[in-house]
Amino acid sequence: MNHGGVPSSGETSGSGRSGIEVFSPSGQRVSTERSQPTCLVVEDDHTMRHLVMNYLGEHHIRAISASGRDQVAGLLVREEPNLVILDLRLGQEDGLDLLREIRSHSDVPVIITTGHRRDEIDRVVGLELGADDYMTKPFGLRELLARIRAVLRRREAGQAAVQRDQERGRCRFGGWQLDRRIRRLTDSSGIPVALTKGEYALLLAFLDAPQRPLSREHLLQATRIHEDVFDRSIDVQVLRLRRKLETDPNAPRVILTERGVGYVFALPVEAL
What we know:
Layout: E1 38-42, H1 46-58, E2 62-66, H2 69-79, E3 83-87, E4 89-90, E5 93-94, H3 95-105, E6 110-114, H4 120-128, E7 133-136, H5 141-168, E8 170-173, E9 176-179, E10 184-186, E11 192-193, H6 197-207, E12 213-215, H7 216-223, H8 233-245, E13 255-258, E14 262-265, E15 270-271
Parallel strand pairs: 1-2, 1-3, 3-6, 6-7
Antiparallel strand pairs: 4-5, 8-9, 8-15, 9-10, 10-11, 12-14, 13-14
Helix pairs in contact: 6-8
């Protein structure tokens, strides 16, 4: 959506690059030398895009933009943004399809935005596809900034956790082995079993506290699933993990339900 004949982000901006607009803390377009976190704003509404970008620039976040999916892949490679703000309503394009494409080759944090409160299903699907947070339009720029900073903090904490995982090495539970250094789970036959980002985070939460009741709130925090979107999200994640770990998911023996509390990982965990 291009308002009032103003050039879209697909045209050459003040940065001298096609498809990229960069704003300084004063709101002026500047060169693309990086000294601050970089945020890619994917938004086809020119007015909204510039409002967000100017505000981020004023708060020491380098902002670049794309108005459609054809520009995003190249920007992810060239600019390596620290975070993406993705509108799910990109004219005739489907933002969820673009999110799938991003997740197929990048784990960059993504905040999705939707235009209507009734789009709950899109928010749920977006989070299941790997979005890190969401906002519903119209939203306040101060809240957006707070969410961006929170996502970036979680990202830093997650990277620190990866480092700790690599240092911890391997562990065994039942006939399973997990190598945290390469995030690889193998069954008793040595066959690798693929885990989603959410399933892996949930498994780590259980392995870090085996044979202890863990509340849904604790697991939600550990996996960063948004309970305000779908209050049974953690149960869905547990069900999916059970399908991969349990001989009979309907009669679980690895992940047990502790009624009134949450869940218990029933097996002892041995460091290797």
